[in-house]
Recover the amino acids of this structure.
């Protein structure tokens, strides 16, 4: 496998020996690579490899301790995101920065240094319609409140905003983490159009097959250093994993529940959410992992949200441990033994400004005290125990959750619902969204261990590899209905057919 120097005919962006540390600990060490004009350049690495730090330096959020950034042949000082924008750098961050209270149009204009103080609404609206159409969002009105859109549609609006800025460099950090394959296709088409105009693109993603499909060149970071920069055409997913981890991954083998009649079950009959889900039924047994396979809008996520009490208009019958679940109310659902891990850890999950320990213990505080008073000793013991379970070092428990990488934040979010004797069914929506290959394997081990310990585990995912690797039973969904059920193995091509064009179950 040859190493690409990155010395292209028209180099547009160069990172030269970038280094950055925090509190005396190096996060990035002498990282160099070049992105040519019109090149789509992948940036890969496991959580903590230094990707986010490199992105923040290139987008003006952090200043390098040493090294320099060259754009258009000139060394530049990027003191802020606004300064970077003025030099032609547009960023789609991993965390959404759109504002739900504003319209789609206002979100597209928001934060752009070229947006005039008094903009012409008619011209801006026409431009907005074109941008939305380019992203496959022509069904959305420019004046529509962003709050009415799904998280995937909001992500598309964020991507559209960056790609419409006529930038010289566009950096996309996990832009497809919440998107279906169809929506991802729209994003890829838009990226290719931007690159064809001569714009440089840096694409950061944990979905390695996407990186190889989209990118011309791939740079891999590990432990803060550049390991290789290679033409994508010379790589396989296995090659990338070895570069990222230093070794081939060990696939997690799904254990089957040994007891054919487990202790308890979750029975769902005729679950219906107006406009979102129609006549969903399933009996899930303890000790097994059930996967709901479906693109965004298929109804897979709505099954979980309805069971967790987040769709108060839902109808149907839900029984857990032979007891009726008041599933139209999140407090009642939780009291019945249902724990839910949302796909949006930022808005519906973690308290990012609070300590990691507080996040781990947030749902079990009543059990850590007596007579309404918390026991500091019990809190510390419980926090240490959960930190060990999810792989977070003890000394980090007082740090804010925001200090963790995305993968470790997700471990905390999942770990909050583990090790509890009052939880019988664990529901997870996109449990490894935005998580690298190592963190993903760790979360899968946690979920497999939870099932082996007697929990019912039910998750929704749009990722074929995750569905096939983790699910004991896979239920495919499309257009708000169940399509088919697979047990004891399934074929990825069949699952994709079901999710995109398969016949729905009667």
């Amino acid at each position: 496998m040859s190493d690409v120097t990155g010395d292209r005919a028209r180099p547009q962006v160069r990172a030269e020996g970038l280094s950055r540390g925090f509190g005396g600990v190096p996060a990035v060490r002498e990282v160099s690579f070049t992105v040519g004009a019109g090149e789509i350049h992948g940036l890969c690495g496991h959580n903590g490899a230094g990707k986010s730090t490199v992105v923040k330096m290139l987008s003006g959020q952090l200043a390098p301790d040493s090294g320099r950034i060259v754009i258009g042949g000139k060394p530049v000082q990027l003191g802020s995101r606004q300064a970077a924008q003025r030099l032609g750098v547009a960023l789609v961050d991993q965390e959404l920065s759109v504002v739900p209270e504003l319209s789609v149009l206002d979100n597209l204009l928001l934060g752009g240094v070229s947006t005039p103080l008094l903009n012409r609404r008619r011209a801006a609206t026409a431009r907005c319609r074109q941008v939305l159409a380019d992203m496959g969002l022509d069904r959305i009105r420019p004046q529509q409140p962003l709050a009415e859109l799904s998280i995937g549609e909001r992500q598309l609006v964020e991507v559209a905003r960056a790609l419409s800025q006529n930038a010289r460099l566009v950096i996309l950090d996990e832009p497809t983490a919440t998107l279906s394959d169809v929506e991802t296709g729209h994003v890829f088409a838009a990226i290719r159009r931007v690159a064809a105009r001569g714009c440089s693109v840096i694409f950061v993603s944990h979905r390695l097959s996407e990186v190889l499909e989209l990118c011309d060149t791939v740079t891999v970071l590990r432990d803060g250093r550049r390991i290789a920069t290679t033409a994508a055409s010379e790589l396989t997913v296995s090659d990338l994993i070895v570069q990222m981890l230093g070794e081939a991954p060990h696939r997690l083998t799904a254990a089957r529940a040994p007891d054919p009649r487990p202790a308890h079950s979750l029975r769902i009959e005729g679950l219906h959410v107006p406009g979102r889900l129609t006549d969903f039924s399933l009996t899930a047994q303890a000790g097994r992992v059930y996967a709901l396979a479906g693109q965004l809008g298929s109804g897979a996520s709505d099954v979980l949200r309805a069971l967790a009490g987040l769709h108060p208009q839902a109808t149907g019958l839900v029984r857990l441990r032979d007891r009726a679940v008041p599933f139209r109310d999140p407090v009642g659902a939780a009291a019945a033994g249902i724990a839910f891990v949302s796909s949006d850890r930022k808005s519906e999950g973690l308290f990012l400004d609070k300590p990691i320990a507080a996040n781990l213990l947030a749902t079990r505080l009543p059990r850590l005290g007596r007579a309404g008073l918390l026991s500091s000793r019990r809190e510390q013991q419980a926090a240490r125990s959960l930190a060990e379970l999810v792989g977070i070092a003890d000394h980090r428990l007082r740090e804010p959750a925001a200090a963790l990488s995305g993968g470790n934040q997700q471990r905390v979010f999942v770990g909050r619902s583990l090790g509890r004797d009052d939880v019988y069914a664990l529901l997870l929506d996109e449990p490894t969204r935005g998580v690298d290959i190592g963190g993903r394997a760790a979360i899968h081990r946690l979920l497999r261990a939870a099932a082996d310990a007697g929990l019912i585990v039910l998750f929704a995912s749009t990722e074929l590899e995750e569905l096939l690797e983790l699910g004991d039973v896979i239920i495919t969904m499309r257009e708000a209905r169940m399509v088919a059920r697979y047990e004891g193995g399934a074929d990825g091509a069949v699952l994709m057919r079901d999710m995109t064009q398969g016949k729905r179950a009667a």
Observations:
- The domain at 11-245 is CATH 3.40.50.300 (Rossmann fold).
- DSSP finds 17 helices and 22 strands in the chain.
- The chain has two domains: 11-245, 265-500.
